[in-house]
Amino acid sequence: MCGIIARIGHGDATETLLSGLENLEYRGYDSAGIAVQNGSGVKVRKCSGEVDELKSSLEQSLHGNMGIGHTRWSTHGPPTDENAHPHTDTAGDVAVVHNGVIDNYDELRAELQARGHEFDSDTDTEVIPHLIDDYREQFGDTERAVREAVETLEGSYAIAAIVDGEERVYAAREGSPLVLGLDDEEWYLASDVPAFLEHTDEVIYLEDGDLVVLEPDDYRITDVAGSPIERSVDTVDWDPEDAGKGEYDHYMAKEIDTQPTALSNTIEGRVEDGNVAFEDLPAGTFADIETVQFVACGTSYHAAMYGSQLLRSAGVRADVLRASEYDQTAGPVDENTLVVAVTQSGETADTLDAVRKATDRGARSLAVTNVVGSTAARETDDAIYIRAGPEVGVAATKTFSSQAVTLALLTQRIAADVPTATPVEDREAMLQSLADLPEHVETVLETTNAESLAREYFDSDSYFFIGNGLGHSVALEGALKFKEITYEHAEGFASGELKHGPLALVTPETPLFAVATGGDDKKTKTNAIEARTRGAPIIAVAPDDHPLADAADWQLSIPDTHPVWAGLLANVQLQLVSYHAAALLERPIDKPRNLAKSVTVE
């Protein structure tokens, strides 16, 4: 997965391309490049490294009213200058940027080389400009050449291309995200809205099979055969300032701090008269559902665990499945199965693939996502938005909290329809406590001692996280966050599993974070004490008066609240520990090595 951008209109495109790439670096930062066309040839500048290095390498300004740009997360070939995008044909007349994977590139490359095309990189992308050039020579028409090229490609792609001597940007999508931004005097194409949000909030979410031709004063969308397609224009309700870093040193710090606002947006209007309400899910929507499958990856998987446990507690059969393993783990699926796709971006390749397979087997589908108009939102039967706003840091923070709350509410909405479900015993108290969650998160942020704790333990050998019930998913998420941005070894376990093997790793140099939710925390306390007898420092993530605090060396305090929401307060504390430890270790917090935010390739 990579980030691509294109711009055409009046005035110079270079600064817009560079700022767009900076806004897309969460999608990849191995290398970067731009190409502009100004009537005197296609000019390409690219290099390995981050966008700042590209800007520094520009010996002279590139000028042109149209251009394309790319920031890379390497799949084919290492992050070198040669493998950076844009790629060109042999003569340098056609320049292309690409997000995705071309499955048949070996075969195409061999065919093109046999016809005299010369290649300079290890990438799959480089076949695309050569294909376009080959078809241009054959048909004498660039638009037809682009159509022929994309029909020849197998795999996933969002591509944008410019050609010497033409005031046009050509683009196509198949399996990778691409959005068109509309302004009064210029058009944009990008992998994600933040690339151009400072310029326009009017967008068209392109769909698989769409081919776009942009000109300075017009745009056209067709299918690959050339037939016109009408796509609706949406307005993005994100504030451009939300996509910036503001006064913070890191996006992650900002996104942790803005969780109270994100959660308020998530909750707004969804609890009415003691009942859960989703505008597009009227009463009876789930009356025929017998089984619910949550499918997700990474942080979204941990949020899905949260929802799955709550739904099982309400008497509905529910499973949480890793999307990448859906073929092997799905079990029976039919028209009484609801598949809930949990994906922040709405573009996660494994999750989309799992939903498509379930749909082919007759299942109903519902997306829980952050992005209006995303592929997941369009392809499922229904969609619920978590309303967290743009999240730029690669390590998910506010979106986990908003996903977990949205899923908790969804479980109660499903249980209200399923005839055999048994409402949560204290459901009314749970929903009343939810209103206090944003304020409780604010309290954690204002009173945390996470930085002091991080200073005490940031040079330890390993870090363990345990929790029981809903605390288990929080422990797993805490460990994931820690390893993602500190590069230190961290593992999460169900509390009762610590003594079934992992205890062999416990030493005085392995701090153990014990998450208490106020539910069934007996196993968490028992195993924490057992680890402490082996010398491990114990950090209780719990309310002040919780029994676990008495058995701990340190405490990360959380306000008293309903057990369903306590884990989310604990999660904020663990996010802060990870952030401060990574800062002490001088890690690149927003851009952890080898990772990108939106995993849009399998």
TrEMBL record:
<dbReference type="InterPro" id="IPR046348">
    <property type="entry name" value="SIS_dom_sf"/>
</dbReference>
<dbReference type="InterPro" id="IPR047084">
    <property type="entry name" value="GFAT_N"/>
</dbReference>
<dbReference type="InterPro" id="IPR035466">
    <property type="entry name" value="GlmS/AgaS_SIS"/>
</dbReference>
<dbReference type="InterPro" id="IPR017932">
    <property type="entry name" value="GATase_2_dom"/>
</dbReference>
<dbReference type="GO" id="GO:0006002">
    <property type="term" value="P:fructose 6-phosphate metabolic process"/>
</dbReference>
<protein>
    <recommendedName>
        <fullName>Glutamine--fructose-6-phosphate aminotransferase [isomerizing]</fullName>
        <ecNumber>2.6.1.16</ecNumber>
    </recommendedName>
</protein>
<comment type="function">
    <text>Catalyzes the first step in hexosamine metabolism, converting fructose-6P into glucosamine-6P using glutamine as a nitrogen source.</text>
</comment>
<keyword id="KW-0808">Transferase</keyword>
<dbReference type="GO" id="GO:0005737">
    <property type="term" value="C:cytoplasm"/>
</dbReference>
<dbReference type="GO" id="GO:0006047">
    <property type="term" value="P:UDP-N-acetylglucosamine metabolic process"/>
</dbReference>
<dbReference type="Pfam" id="PF13522">
    <property type="entry name" value="GATase_6"/>
</dbReference>
<keyword id="KW-0677">Repeat</keyword>
<dbReference type="GO" id="GO:0006487">
    <property type="term" value="P:protein N-linked glycosylation"/>
</dbReference>
<keyword id="KW-0963">Cytoplasm</keyword>
<feature type="active site" description="Nucleophile; for GATase activity">
    <location>
        <position position="2"/>
    </location>
</feature>
<dbReference type="GO" id="GO:0004360">
    <property type="term" value="F:glutamine-fructose-6-phosphate transaminase (isomerizing) activity"/>
</dbReference>
<feature type="domain" description="SIS">
    <location>
        <begin position="282"/>
        <end position="420"/>
    </location>
</feature>
<keyword id="KW-0032">Aminotransferase</keyword>
<feature type="active site" description="For Fru-6P isomerization activity">
    <location>
        <position position="597"/>
    </location>
</feature>
<keyword id="KW-0315">Glutamine amidotransferase</keyword>
<dbReference type="InterPro" id="IPR001347">
    <property type="entry name" value="SIS_dom"/>
</dbReference>
<dbReference type="InterPro" id="IPR035490">
    <property type="entry name" value="GlmS/FrlB_SIS"/>
</dbReference>
<dbReference type="Pfam" id="PF01380">
    <property type="entry name" value="SIS"/>
</dbReference>
<dbReference type="InterPro" id="IPR029055">
    <property type="entry name" value="Ntn_hydrolases_N"/>
</dbReference>
<dbReference type="GO" id="GO:0005975">
    <property type="term" value="P:carbohydrate metabolic process"/>
</dbReference>
<feature type="domain" description="SIS">
    <location>
        <begin position="453"/>
        <end position="592"/>
    </location>
</feature>
<comment type="subunit">
    <text>Homodimer.</text>
</comment>
<dbReference type="InterPro" id="IPR005855">
    <property type="entry name" value="GFAT"/>
</dbReference>
<dbReference type="GO" id="GO:0097367">
    <property type="term" value="F:carbohydrate derivative binding"/>
</dbReference>
<feature type="domain" description="Glutamine amidotransferase type-2">
    <location>
        <begin position="2"/>
        <end position="217"/>
    </location>
</feature>
